[in-house]
Write a structure and sequence with these properties.
The chain is of the alpha+beta class and about 190 residues long. About 15% of the residues lie in helices and about 40% in strands.
Length: about 190
């Protein structure tokens, strides 16, 4: 029995064509490598409770904006976010700024600037030693924070329900500027 010449070549060409169809388009149009899965943009691997507000020990400013805090939620909030349960105003990790040139308003914590910029994540990686955050803000453009947690200092602060000691140190970039050696203390919030 004779085989048609070129049949293996046709089968191979067909398999290659099918494989190319399975590949999503790269940003900007043409084919290319697979885009990373959305799940890899949001990773929370902490084994201890890191939830709370991480507030600057000293003033951290970028233009008219002052860093108010880096917020970390509870494990269940990270799980929900990764599963797609999201709102446009809250995330389990956020960076919040205050416009120090805006009018002051009275709150239960005293007077505070009325202008705020809350930045939600487009990606994050958080574990027991690291906080990496990236987001986009209409007011500040691309916002990133990369910090190192001090587990011992955080445990002490949590036992004392807040402490003036530094628990997180990192680099903040926003508005085209970078501030290094940002020192944050922990506060549990209201």
């Amino acid at each position: 029995m004779s085989r048609a010449p070129g049949l293996p070549v046709l089968v191979l060409a067909g398999l290659l064509a099918l494989a190319a169809c399975d590949r999503p388009a790269a940003p900007g149009g043409g084919g290319g490598e697979r885009a990373p899965a959305a799940a890899t943009a949001f990773r929370y691997d902490a084994t201890s409770d890191l939830s709370g507000y991480y507030m600057p020990v000293g003033e951290v400013t970028i233009g008219k904006w002052r860093l108010k805090d880096v917020f970390l939620g509870q494990q269940s909030e990270f799980d929900g976010w990764s599963a797609g349960s999201r709102t446009g105003t809250y995330a389990p990790v956020m960076v919040e700024f205050e416009d120090k040139t805006s009018a002051l308003v009275q709150t239960e914590m005293g007077e505070t600037p009325s202008g705020k910029a809350r930045v939600l994540p487009s990606r994050y990686v958080i574990d027991d030693r690291t906080v990496r955050f990236e987001g986009q803000s209409p007011e500040l453009g691309r916002v990133t924070f990369e910090g190192r947690l001090d587990a011992g200092a955080l445990a002490t602060a949590r036992r004392n329900l807040g402490d003036e000691g530094v628990v997180l140190t990192g680099t903040l970039s926003a508005g085209g500027q970078t501030v290094r050696d940002v020192k944050l203390r922990w506060w549990m919030g209201d």
